[in-house]
Hints:
By secondary structure, the chain is α/β, with parallel strands linked by helices.
Amino acid sequence: MKKEKWNWNKKFNRLNLMLLAGICLMAAAFSLHGSPSANAEETSGGMQELEGKRILFISSYSESFVTVPDQIKGLSSVLTPKGISLDIEYMDTKRFSGEEIIDRFYESLTYKLKKLPVYDAIIAGDDAALQFAMDYQKELFPEIPIIFFGINDKERAKKADANPYMAGGVEETSLVENIELALRFNPKAKRVVGIIDGTLTGQGDRKQLEDAALAFPDLEFTAFNASECTFEEFGKKLEALDNHCIILFQSMNQDGTGAYLELEEQFAFLRKHTKVPIYRASVGGIGDGLLGGWMIDYEEMGRAAAEMTCRVLSGTPIHTIALLEETPHYHIFDYDIIQKYGIDQKLIPEGAVLFNKEISPLERYRKLLIGAGIVFVVLAIFTIILFIQNIRYRKMQRELQESHEQLVSTYEELTASEEELKSQYEKIEIMAKHDYLTNLPNRLHFLEELSHELEIGSYGVVMLLDIDNFKGINDTLGHVYGDRLLQEVGERLSGLQDDRMFCARFGGDEFLILIKGIKEKEEIQTYIRSLQEAFEEAFVIDEIENSINFSMGVTRYPKDSDNLDQLIMNVDTAMYKVKHNGKNNYIYYQEEMKDEIKTKKELEGLLRQALREGGFYLCYQPQLEVETGEIVGFEALVRLKDCNISPGIFIPVAEETGHIVAIGRWVAEEAIRQLADWRKKGFAERVISINFSSKQLRDREYTSYLMELLKAYEVSPKSLEIEITESIFLEKDIQTMEFLEGWKASGLQIALDDFGTGYSSLNYLTYIPVDKIKLDKTINDKFLLPGNMEVMNSIISLAHGLKLKITAEGIEDYDKYLRLRESGCDYIQGYLFSKPLIVDELEKIYHLNLLDKLKKELNSDFNH
Length: 864
C-alpha cells in the first residue's frame, strides 16, 4: 500500500516538473520574443570618443513646421545616446522669405557663434539651410564639416557635395511612385496636376514634377503655381479639376499678393476647393483631407544624417562620403478618404499605414490574447491530466486555484492596459482641441462649441478680437517676444472666463469669444467693458512695456444667423470694418455690411477685368512755373474707362486686393510711352509725375522694371517723377529707403505728396532723398488767407533751406495764386489753370503759357 502511494506521488511529482518546465519554456519564448536586440556596432569606446561633441542643426523652417519634429527626433535618437549635444537654429523661411529674413538670421547667428565655443559639425536641414551654409561657409563655418539632408534641388545638392567640407543626401519625393499608385486607384486618369508655389522649395518641386513627367509620356502634366494669382483665383482653378485628374500637393505657402497660409490652413483650403483625391509625397495632411501616398520618412532621414555626422566625427574623411540619393519612404493613407472616394481596399499596398481606421479589440490585443490563450490551453491540458491521474489530491485543487488567480491577474493587466490607452487617447484629444502656444481652446474646439449651441437652439454672442498693429511688434521686437505677448493675452482672456464665456485662439493674433445665453445689449456691453479693462494695463515682457489695443467684431445668434459659417463671416466682416475705421474699437455686425462686401467684390472684379482688357486710361493735369506761367510737367492720374467711379473709391480697393501692383506698372509704362510719343511728335520735353502707393513696396522688381521701360522707350530718367506719401513709411522703413535710394541712384525725381496732412512731415524731410514737396489742398485752403500767410511763408522758406522745390496743389482762386507768387512758391497745380485732361485735349495747350491764357480770360470776363 505504501509502495503504491509512493509510486503515485512519484508520478505526480513528475507531472509537476513537466508543468514547471512547460511554464519556463513559455516564459523563455515570450522573453525572447519581446526583448530588444542589442546593437553590436555600438561600443563603449566609440561612445566615449564622441561624448562631449557639439553639433549645430540649422533648420530651414520653424519648430512647429510639420517635418521638423520628425527630423529632430531622428537626429536625437542617434546623437543623444552617444553624449553629443545638439543645438538648433530655425530660419523660418516658410512663413518669411526674402533677403531681409536671411540677413536677420545671419546677424543673429553671427552674434551667437562669436559667444559660443566652435561647433564640431553643422547639420543643414532642407534647401534654404544648405544654401545659407554654402553662402556663408567661409565667414561662419570655416573648415567645419557640414552634413546636409532633405534637399529638393538635386543640382544644389551635387554642388554642395563637390565641396570638400560637405556631404549629405537629397530628398526624393518619389512623384513617380505616387503617380503609379494613383493610376492603380484611378486607371481613367489622363492628367497630372502638381500644386506648387514660387518659394525656393516650390522651385525644386517644379523641377521634380518635370522630371517625373518623363516617365509618363501618355499623361498631360500641369504645374498649378499658387504664387501666380490670389488664393481666391487659385481655389477656382482647383474646383474645375475632375475625376480625370491626379492631384499632387507639393507646396502652396504664398499667393501672388504675398498672403501666407500655414500648412494646416493649406490643407483646409485644399479640402474646400477639390473634389478628387489629393496625393502627397511629403509629410502632413493625413487626417486633414489628403488621401496620402508613398511618403517620406523624415525621422529615418534625420537618423541617416546623424549617423553620417558620427562617421565624420569618428575620423572618416568627409570628402570620401558619397552623395546619398535614396530617400526612406512608407505608405500611409487616410481611411476616411479611401471610403469617401470608393477606392478598392484590395489595391492598397501591403503593410500600408491606414489612418482613421478603427482597430478591432481582437487586433489590438492579439498578442496578449494569444499568450493568454496558450497559457490557458497548457494549464487546461495539465489540469485534465492531473484530474484524470489523481482526483483525490487537494493539492491539485490549490494549484488550479493559483492558476486561476494568475489568469485573473492577466485579465487585470489587460484591463489596466486598456485604461492606460484610454487615458492616452483622452490626452491626445485634449491636445488636438487646444492651442499649443496659449493653451486656450483652438479654432476646432470653438467651432464644436458654437455648433452645439446652434443645434440646441440657444442664443448668444460671438466676438472676434484682433490685436492692433501686432505685425509691427513682431517686426521690431521679434517673434519670440510676439509669442510671449500672445501667451499673456491668452492668460488675461482665461482669467475673464465664467460659465457663460468661452475663449479660443482663432489663429495668429485673432481670438474668438463665445458668450452663451445673452441677447440684450446691456449684458453684452458688460462683457465688452470687461475685455477693454483687461487690456488697459500695459503688457510688460523682458522689461519692455507695450500698451495693446484691439479691434473687435460682434455678431448675435440666432438674430444675425443660425448658420455656423455665416456667423464666422459676420464677425470677421465687422472686425475688418473696425480696422478700416481706425482700429481700437468694436462694432456690431449689420446686414448692410454684406452690401459693402458685395460692392467691394464687384469693384474688385471690375479692376481685374480692366487689367485684363485694357480698361484704364490716363489723364494729365498741368504743373506750371509760378513766375512765368509756363508748363513744366504733368501729373498722370489713372481713370476707369466707361465707368464714372472715382479713384478715391477704386484705388483703396486695388490696394487692399493687391491689384495696385499691376495697376502701378501699367501707369508707369503708359506714362513713359506717352513721353516717347510726344518726343516723336516734336513736343518740348516735359516731366510726368506718377503716384506710388505704399502697397507697391511688395513689388521688389519695380525699380528695375522702370529702368527697362525707360531704356526700351529711350526716355531719360529725369523726365519721370515719382510721387510718394507719408503712409509709405508705415510699411517697411528699410525696404522703403532701399526703393528711394535706388530711384535717386537711377536719376529719377522724387516728390513727397500730400505734405501737411500727417504728423511727421518735417521729420521726414531731414532724411528722405526727395527733390520736391507738394502742399496738400487742405493746407493751402487754410494758410493762403489774409492773416495766415506767416505759416505758409515759413513752410516755403524751410523747404528752400533744405534745397527742395515747392508745388502747391488744388489751387482754384486767382488770389491764392498771387499770394503763392509773393511767398516764392516754385510750381502750382489746380483747376485755376486746368483740370486733368485726356491726351488729345492736353496737346492743344501743351505749348501755351497758361498764365497769359488765364489773364486774357479774366480780362474778357471783366470787359463783358
